[in-house]
Amino acid sequence: MADHSKIKQDHRRFKQIVRGKIKGNLRDYMTQGELTGKQGKDIVKIPIPRIDIPRFRYGTKQTGGVGQGDGEVGDSLGQGEEGPGQGQEVGNQEGDKGIEVDVSLDELAEIMGEELELPKIEPRGTEKLETIKDKYSGIRNIGPESLKHFKRTYKEALKRQISTGEYDPDNPIIIPMRDDKRFRSWKETSMPQSNAVIIYMMDVSGSMGDEQKEIVRIESFWIDTWLRSQYKGLDSRFIIHDATAKEVDRDTFFHTRESGGTMISSAYKLALKIIEDEYPLEDWNVYPFHFSDGDNWSVDDTGECMAILRDGMLPRSNMFCYGQVESPYGSGQFIKDLEEHFGDHDSVVLSEIKNREAIYDSIKTFLGKGL
């Protein structure tokens, strides 16, 4: 028992060390695209710096010298064959690497929340949207064989045979009859559940290159991780746009590249239609995220975007987030237009993402208000 307790104690300490390593390197992890590629259903593999465990290191056997055979005060403790300043030859093999640890997405979100000091989200819709669950709460005399309670059935048969004198201690065979059978019973319970939808929109015109889309991919992974820890159910929808907009799956979203012009209003119209058709305001927490390099086709289209936001999307959303990814081909004007129209709006969050190193601060900007 003592050894088992010691193992559990050591395991807890190892997990604390790993957790500390992850927190200390979180900013670096948020710039690494390969991390998102190691995501499973409920876990993600995270590389952490090597953890050295102290151990004895023995020298070469039977070499003589100080501590083993003859030696005088002042003699070298080395092998004695190398001259001053000489060491081992330069190797051509890979050095020691760190290790990969499996971390649940819930734990990763908890670490993320602590490090970025993210406030907990207070979702709406918890009294409207319900999940029906079956709870086994008792025993009854009828039911399907799949729910038969073997222990209770055996006990009833034993009681019957003892009371009728059929029970033989020397030949204790218990054969349940129909009336002896007992079955688990259940009842349906309604559990309030808060759901959320993230609608990702991204400009895929020629000015948004592979690096810009990779930044969006990395940032969306961390946004998803945090929001999934705050909601029981989370939908993610994906819209790409150049001069026109269409809904796509996740993989297409991050790997499509077009060469046409840019009309941002096309994405906003499609997002608003999805919200109105499928996500009622009273039941759903809605988070539109738009990523672009700031170019738009015309001043008129920008004006239409502002009208869609003001009259349609913002009244139906918890928060609207716009991330402007810096591109050598983009003008960067759109974030200035949003700032002019909605700079004081509590539900609009704007972030400029100059490069991968800016992802950490961008996520804190988006999520730091609690959404």
Shape: extended
Gyration radius over CA: 32 Å
The H/E string reads HHHEEHEHEEHEEHHEHEHEH
Helix content: 25-40%
CATH homologous superfamily label of the domain at 195-367: von Willebrand factor, type A domain
List segments where confidence is low: pLDDT < 50 over at least 5 consecutive residues.
Answer: 50-54, 126-133
Number of helices: 11
CATH fold label of the domain at 195-367 = Rossmann fold
Strand proportion, as a percent range, falls in 15-25%
Q: Kindly, what is the distance between the CA atoms of the first and last residues, rounded to a whole number of angstroms?
A: 48 Å
Structural class: alpha/beta
- Under the CATH scheme, which architecture of the domain at 195-367 would be assigned? 3-Layer(aba) Sandwich
- Total strands: the figure is 10
Can you summarize the main beta sheet?
A: 6 strands, mixed
Strand order within the widest sheet?
A: 7-6-5-8-9-10
Would you state the CATH class of the domain at 195-367? Alpha Beta
Mean model confidence by pLDDT: 78
How is this structure best described in words?
There is one protein chain. Among the domains are: 57 residues, no CATH class; 173 residues, von Willebrand factor, type A domain (Rossmann fold, 3-Layer(aba) Sandwich). It has a 6-stranded mixed β-sheet, with helices on both faces. The protein has a two-stranded antiparallel ribbon with strand order 1-2. About 4% of the residues have low confidence. α4 packs across α6 and α8 packs parallel to α9. Helices cover 36% and strands 20% of the residues. It has 371 residues and is an alpha/beta fold.
